[in-house]
Amino acid sequence: MERSKEEEIKKDYLKMAEKVGPSSSFLKNCAAAFIVGGLICDVGQLVMNYFLSLGIPKDEVNSYVAAVMIFLGAFLTGIGVYDNIGKHAGAGSIVPITGFANSVVSPAMEFKREGYVFGVGAKMFVIAGPVLVYGISASIIVGLIYYFIR
Amino acid sequence: MDYIRAFLVGGTICLIGQILMEKTKLTSARILVIFVTAGVILGAVGVYKPIAEFGRAGASIPLTGFGYSLARGAIEEVQKNGIIGAFTGGIKAASAGMAAAVFFGYIMALIFKPRTKN
Amino acid sequence: MAEKKIGLQTVKFKNPPSIVSTASIVGPKEGEGPLREYFDLIISDDLYDEDSWEKAESKMAREAVRMALKKIGMTPDRVDYLFEGDLLNQITSSSFVARDLKIPFFGLYGACSTMTESLSLAAMITDGGYSDYAVAATSSHFSSAERQFRFPLELGTQRPPTAQWTVTGAGAAVVGRNGEGPYITYVTTGRVMDFGIKDANNMGAAMAPAAADTIIRHFKDTGFKPQDYDLIISGDLGQVGRQLTIDMVKENGYDISQNFTDCGIEIFDSDRQDVHAGASGCGCSAVVFCGYLYSQIKKGNIKRLLIMSTGALLSPTSTQQGESIPGIAHAVAIEGRI
């Protein structure tokens, strides 16, 4: 009896807390994510067109673009700009590959004071590590499935 | 034309990410994991290929594109070299990005110091 | 029954200890806020000439204690006890202060409730006759807390509107057996309350039940009413937690909507400074009390104050393991004269 009453109070409270919470500016955030994400991809397109004009074959050009974009993301993180973009753009700057670079550089910089092996070296992958684990594992499973069903 | 298509496709993929974050309170790290894995799966079932051909950089720059190249690499390598390709193909296809992230990440960490926020 | 205890959770002091001196140090952002003129020192760089934020935090805490003692011409060796805590793992900021100042030390962890937790204990040990001078102090630092509890600073994440901003600051109060006030007259020690909030970006809602419980308990134990206080102020509930607390206290028959605010709301200008739901951190209630409120009581602008620091008792591990966030709140009644 006591217990169920306590549960009830808690449930009511969660509802109440939900109501009082300020609404995040949903539409504004979505617009910012769309525009910034689109612009970052346009920068990528610019880089891609540049390499294509140099005569890089089409199926190799993605590697060039990825490397350049990652450099840009890493550099903007280093000079302290990327987190300010992220504050406004949200997923618009998280989802592009520059955001992946940001997730590698930001912890690496931050933990420099804890040393170069367990600080920079290890912490570099706190966020990017899971991305590689799931991405690579999923691709291996895809390859294996393809091998057996083709 | 290239730029408009890249903008629209890339922007839309990021918009999906934003909606996910707003509605589910997922952290950015989880969003990255979900997008890479989604890219692998969409690539494997053939959905991402037309998006990539239409959107070009708009489809390859978002992390789903990273997942797509992992999946495509694994499949192509299996076609060429058999079962070992499942293990070598993905990383081979994404190797430039991964190596760049490690190398530039390390260099930037050596050069720069983090700043506090305002 | 214990002779100085009234009701279930409240202590009434026989010889109310006096807060003889306070000092506060804040970071640059706090120094731009509406309370800037009340702080003793505003550091221009939040590294404070150290090479890490953790060291800077400990230095702020140490200098705040030194400053509070210096104002009354005291040296650390005359202090009987230091009650201090902070937010970092194993409360190193505080133990390093005790290492440098060589004062007998009780290390506390009450998350952001540490200011009133340390004041409560310092007052009790003083009224009990075990101490002539005890120091209550605490500190927090935005950058050291952010990297421990959340994300690297340069990571481009978006803060949800319920998120709060950890104050960079340290406050210290010297509690003496004899003095001319302000006096600590009552202490209500809080219970840990958990209503199941799991969102670490919504600590105000996680702490509000504890805050409401302590306020209600304080009124029940002492027989006071909300209007007996000029000001009731919580530590770092923020906008969200403040509203929830008012609602819950009201359900129990006490209307505090007229004279209840929150240090986390007062320290920043929410229109001008991008802090979302308000400030948080041990340093929040510490610098607002040791800086602003103490001077207001001294001047007589506030005659009776109920200050209640609030803490969210989570760790990065407990959050990752899906635990909800328990809250705690300790109330201390302070009066200009008795």
From TrEMBL, chain A:
Q: Name one Pfam family in it.
A: SpoVAC_SpoVAEB
Superkingdom, taxonomy of origin: Bacteria
Its signal peptide is none
Keywords attached to this entry: Membrane, Transmembrane, Transmembrane helix
Transmembrane region(s): 31-52, 64-82, 88-105, 125-149
The answer to whether keyword DNA repair applies is no
- The protein, known as: Stage V sporulation protein AC
Q: Which organism is it from?
A: Fonticella tunisiensis
From TrEMBL, chain B:
Q: Which residues form a coiled coil?
A: none
The cross-references to InterPro entries, in alphabetical order and at most eight, read:
Spore_V_AE (IPR014204), SpoVA (IPR005562)
Q: Which domain of life is it from?
A: Bacteria
- Give the residue range of the signal peptide: none
Q: Would the keyword Metal-binding turn up in this protein's UniProt record?
A: no
- Which segments cross the bilayer? 6-22, 29-48, 93-112
Q: Which UniProt keywords apply?
A: Membrane, Transmembrane, Transmembrane helix
The reply to whether Membrane figures as a keyword in the UniProt entry is yes
Q: Which PANTHER family match?
A: STAGE V SPORULATION PROTEIN AC-RELATED, STAGE V SPORULATION PROTEIN AEB
**Name of the protein:** Stage V sporulation protein AE
Automatic annotation (TrEMBL), chain C:
Q: Which top-rank group of organisms is this from?
A: Bacteria
Q: Name one GO molecular function term.
A: acyltransferase activity
One Pfam family of this chain:
SpoVAD
Instruction: Read off the InterPro entries from this record.
Output: SpoVAD, SpoVAD_sf, Thiolase-like
Name the chain's protein: Stage V sporulation protein AD
